[in-house]
Structure formats: structure tokens, C-alpha cells
Specification:
By secondary structure, the chain is of the alpha/beta class. The protein has 10 helices and 7 strands. It has a 7-stranded mixed β-sheet with strand order 3-2-1-4-5-7-6. The radius of gyration is 19 Å and the shape is globular. The protein starts with 8 loop residues before the first helix and ends with a strand.
Length: 285
């Protein structure tokens, strides 16, 4: 199989935005609006960010606004929250979900190039830093718009070995479809350990860095539920790649994925995945 050409940063971001514009409604229904799996960390992020009434907060890569809504409740009528995302589909959902919040605005923008005429008490970013091809640029941009002694609060997945919900499938998919993850895609696993995350945030000029680790669980049901839901919520370009496989290849691929889930499968047939989460807080000196 011929590998596709390597994506530039610009091409990667356009592809990412197109993907999120497609999957945002499904992502919101299945994950973001429900306090399940990794999104059980949402309340922890808001708590650790120490958001107070009257604060001005930026929620970067806010997606469909699930955590932005929590923040708006915390800052109250005397505070203000700005949610930023590059997906118009996600922003539309966020606005609809928060249409009764007068202390909340949503902005369509690229995190690398956002500009504000105000500074924020807190900047939050949930499950997004690994998507940015130039994460250091994004972090420096965040630092520019934080007040002195302002707080950065990030949530990230652990590395793939600690999030088998992803690795059980991706480790197999990438063998059968070599360009399943296109060349030029940033390593989404690169901030999955304390040391990697701390090194990156420290290099961007933040201090008082503290990283807490959590292990939540996620129950996707039986293997058939896990597999069918993965395919159901997959973006169209990835579905097209899977369609190019022969029936025998698909069968072998599915069987290998099932083998990967066996360590997490109970006698009842139900899968219980551990899901490691890192929450970082830091200060702008």
C-alpha cells in the first residue's frame, strides 16, 4: 500500500477542523454532555483551576462547550467566560447548549493565532493540547493573555499504554491501514506522562507546575458494542480507509482488536477499561 504524502501543519489543521465539523454532534451526544469515562475529570479540572466568582476565564479548544458551561456557573454574573474553538460545528452546539448564559461568549478562532484586548485570570484547555501541531506556540499565546499569577489548567489523556480504549483499536488499525494516521499528524501521545507534560509547559515559561494523575473507568459494553460504536462514530475519511480492506483482512483485524480487549473483559463479557488522566495546573510568573 502506498503511503499518503506528509501533511503540512496547515493541511493537518484543515483536515482536523473538517473532521471535527463532521463528528462534533456525535461527540457531544456520546461523550461531552455526559459525565462518563474521561469526562468524569471535568469537575476536577474546574476545581483545581480554583475558579472564583467574578473571574474572567478563557476556555481554549472548548469544543461543544460542556466544560465552558461549568465555568460560567462558577464565575457567576459578575464574571465572564470566553470559549474558543476552530470548529464551527462545535461552536454552534456550544452556543445552543448555553443560550441562556449572559456571561459567556464563543469565538471561532485558531488557538495559535488568537488575539484579545483583555487578560484572563484563568485559561483552561481540556483534551486538546496534543492536537496542536505547535503546542509551544499555543502555550506561549496562552501565557501572553494570562494576568500576572494567572492560572493555566490543562487536562490530557495518559499515554496509550494507560488508555486501552484507544490503543486496543489503534495498535491494530495502524498495522492493517498504514496511513490510518496520516504522516504529518502530531504525536497525540506526546504529553501522556508527567515528565513530558511538565517539560513542555515549563519550557513555555510557566512556573508552580503541578500535575495530578487520575484513573477513571469506562464501560463500553460487550466487545460487539465497543466495536460497532467505534465504527459508528468514526469520521468519514477513516471509514473509507477501512472499506478498502478485504473481508478476510477485516475479520483478522477485528479478531486482533478483540484479543487486545480480553485483559479488560469480565466473565460477563462486559469490558471495563481503565482510563488515565493528567490534570496540570501552572502559574504565569
Amino acid at each position: 500500500m502506498v503511503r499518503s504524502k506528509k501533511l503540512t501543519h496547515s493541511e493537518y489543521k484543515k483536515r482536523l477542523i473538517k473532521t471535527w465539523d463532521e463528528i462534533a454532534p456525535r461527540y457531544h451526544r456520546r461523550w461531552a454532555k455526559n459525565n462518563i469515562g474521561p469526562f468524569r475529570s471535568s469537575s476536577e479540572l474546574v476545581k483545581l483551576a480554583d475558579i472564583q466568582a467574578g473571574y474572567v476565564v478563557l476556555d481554549l479548544a472548548c469544543g461543544t462547550g460542556a466544560i465552558t458551561k461549568r465555568i460560567a456557573t462558577k464565575v457567576g454574573s459578575s464574571g465572564k467566560v470566553v470559549g474558543v474553538d476552530s470548529s464551527i460545528s462545535a461552536i454552534k452546539i456550544a452556543k445552543k447548549e448555553n443560550n441562556n448564559k449572559t456571561n459567556l461568549d464563543f469565538v471561532l478562532s485558531d488557538a495559535e493565532f488568537i488575539k484579545f484586548n483583555k487578560k484572563f485570570d484563568v485559561v483552561t484547555c481540556q483534551y486538546a493540547l496534543f492536537f496542536f501541531p505547535n503546542a509551544n506556540k499555543v502555550l506561549r499565546n496562552i501565557k501572553q493573555y494570562l494576568k500576572k499569577n494567572g492560572t493555566l489548567a490543562l487536562t490530557l489523556h495518559g499515554n496509550k499504554d494507560t488508555v486501552p480504549y484507544f490503543s486496543s483499536i489503534l495498535d491494530v488499525m495502524t498495522k492493517f491501514v498504514p496511513d490510518y494516521i496520516p504522516q504529518g499528524t502530531p504525536n497525540l501521545d506526546r504529553f501522556g506522562t508527567r515528565s513530558q507534560l511538565k517539560k513542555t509547559v515549563s519550557a513555555s515559561g510557566f512556573t508552580n507546575i503541578r500535575i495530578r494523575e487520575y484513573v477513571f473507568t469506562y464501560r463500553p459494553g460487550m466487545f460487539s458494542d465497543y466495536w460497532q460504536n467505534y465504527l459508528k462514530y468514526l469520521a468519514k475519511p477513516l471509514k473509507e480507509k477501512i472499506k478498502t480492506l478485504s473481508a478476510l483482512q477485516k475479520k483478522k483485524m477485528k479478531n486482533q482488536i478483540k484479543q487486545n480487549t480480553l485483559p479488560y473483559t469480565k466473565k460477563s463479557g462486559q469490558i471495563v477499561f481503565p482510563w488515565k488522566i493528567l490534570i496540570l495546573t501552572a502559574k504565569k510568573p
